[in-house]
Amino acid sequence: MTELLEIQNLQKNYRGIHAIKDISFKMKEASVVGIVGGNGAGKSTLMKCITGAERQDNGIVIFEGKELTVGNPTHSRQSGIEMIYQDLNLCAQQTVLANIFLGRETQKSGLPILDYESMKNKASEILKALNSDINPTAIVEKLSGGQQQAVAIARAMTFNPKLIIMDEPTAALGVKEVKKVLSLVENLKKQRVAVIIISHRLVDLFETADRIIFMKHGKIEKDKSVSDISLKQLTELLVS
Amino acid sequence: MTLKTSTILLIIFLAILCAIFSTLSPYFLNVANLLNILVATVTIGILAIGASFVIGSAGLDLSVGSIMALSATTAMAIATSMNAPWFMIIVVCLATGLLVGAINGGLIGFRHIPAFIVTLAMLSIARGLALLISNGRPTYGLPENIIFIGQGSIFGVPVPVLIFLIVCLFAYFLLSHTRFGWHTLAIGDNEEASKNAGIKVNWHKVKLYAFSGFLAALAGLIFMGRVNASDPTAGTMYELTAITAAIIGGTSLFGGKASVVGAVLGALIMGVLQNGLNLMSVPAYYQQLAVGGVLILAVSFNSFDFKTWWHKS
C-alpha cells in the first residue's frame, strides 16, 4: 500500500495557546486510523488543518504526494478529503437522495429540471455499495441513527473521496446501530477509501482501526498498530 | 405524516366546510357563488404560495400586503404621469414587486438582519411610499386591458382564476422539480448543511424574497384590475391571511417543509369560510373569531398523526 496522507511537523496556535505542536504521521491508502484523546488534545484542530477548515501555522499536509497549499475545505474536497461531522450535517426533513445530492443535483440535459430518476438510481447504487438497504426516497428524520450515518457516508462518497474523516460516528448510537456503522467503515475500506475515526469509544476503534493514534496536549503520545496496544493500555493512557 | 396524507386531510376539511355552508345557505353551491369564491381566493392564494416558499426556507415575509399596494400605485403613477401604454403598468408593477422583494432578500441574506425585522420594516416603508405616491387617494380609471386582468373571462373562466392556475402549476414545478425549490427547503431545514454543500445561501435568499415580492405585485395587479382602482391601502393585513393559509396548508413555520397544493387549499379554506360566513350574514367581528378558530383547528387536524392513531386503535 502506498502513502496517502503525510503530515509533517504541523503546528497551530490560537492566541498563543498551542493547539497542536509539531505533529507528524503517515497514513496508507485504504487503511483505518483511530484518533483518541481527551478534550483539548488537539484532535479537532488536526482534522481542521487536514480538511482545510483551518490553516496551520507551520508544517505541511501532503495528500497523494502533493502538498495541500490552498487551505480551504473546497480544495481539500477536490483533492479527495471528506469530513463527516458528529451532527452529520443532514437536512432531516428532506429525502435521502436530496441529502446525498445536496448542492450538486443532477439536471436533465440542457434543462433546469431535476433528473429525479437518475439521482434515485445513483443513490441506490451508492447505498448498495455500502451494503445499506435504505430507500433513497425515505425522509432522513425517520431513519435510525446508523442509517443517518450511512446517508452522510453516501453523500461523502458522491465526491469520490480517497479519505473520509469521521468525527464520533458512533457516539449517540445503540449497540446494533454501532455494528452497522462499523460495517460501513469496513465497506469503505473494501472500496479503497481510507478512514480516520475520531472516537471516545475505544472498543469500536479496536474493531475497525488498523492503527490508533493517542493525542494529549496537542502532541501524539502514542502511534501504535492495534495489535501492539491493548484496550486496557489505551484506557489507562486516556485516564492518566 | 407525509405531505400527501396532509393534503388529503385538507381536502376532507374543505369538503366538510363546504357541506356545512351548503346546508346553512341555499346560495352557497351556486356556480356564480363558487366562481366568486375562486376569484376572491386568487389574491390570497398567490400571496400564500409566496409565503410557502419563504416560510419553507425558515424565513418570513410580512411585507407582501404593502408590496401589493406599492406596486400597483407606482405603476399607476408612472402610467398617468408619463401617459405610458397599458402594458407598461404591468411591467412597472411586477418590476416594483421584484425590486422591493430583492431588497428584502439582500438585507436578510447579506446583512444577516432577521427576516421578521426586515419585512416588518418594509411593511411600513412600502405602505408609506404607496400613500406618498398616491397622496393617500385611490386612482380610478384604469385602462381596459388592466381591468380585463381582474374582471375579464376566457371561455367562461375568470382571467384571475386562469392566472392563478398558471402560477400554481409554475410554483408546484419550481418547488418540486428544480434546484431552486430543493435548495429553498434545504436552507429552511439546515442552513449550515446547505452552506457546506456549496449552496449560495445569501443569493438564494435574494432570489426567494424577490420571487415573493413578484407574486405580491402580481396579486396587486389582479386586485387593481378587479376593483378598477389602484388603492394605496389595498392588501392591508393580507400578509397574515397569506401566512395563515400557508400554515394551514402544511408549511412548517420552522422551515424545511412546504406545499404549493397545501397553500392553495389553505387559501380556499379561508375563502370558503369568509364567503360562507358572509352568506349567513355573520358580523365581521365574529368572522375574525372564526378565522382564528379554523386556523387552530386545521393545524391540529393537519398535524394529527392519523396513521399512528389508526394502528394503535
Question: Explain this structure to me?
Answer:
The complex is a heterodimer of chains A (240) and B (313). Chain A has 240 residues and is α/β, with parallel strands linked by helices. In chain A, 33% of the residues lie in helices and 27% in strands. Chain A is built from eight helices and ten strands. In chain A, β7, α6 and β8 form a beta-alpha-beta unit. The longest helix of chain A is centred in the last third of the chain and has 16 residues. The two termini of chain A are 35 Å apart. Chain B is mainly alpha-helical and 313 residues long. The longest helix of chain B is centred in the C-terminal third of the chain and has 27 residues. Chain B is globular and about 70 Å long. The interface between A and B is medium-sized, with 19 and 20 residues.
Helix vs. strand class of chain A: alpha/beta
Estimated structural class of chain B: mainly alpha
| Largest beta-sheet details of chain A | 6 strands, mixed
Please report the number of helical segments of chain A.
8
Low-confidence stretches of chain B: none
Strand content of chain A: 25-35%
Overall 3D geometry of chain A?
A: globular
Sheet with most strands: strand arrangement of chain A = 6-7-8-3-9-10
Number of strands of chain A: 10
Average pLDDT, all residues of chain B: 93
Computed CA radius of gyration of chain A, to the nearest angstrom: 18 Å
Low-confidence stretches of chain A: none
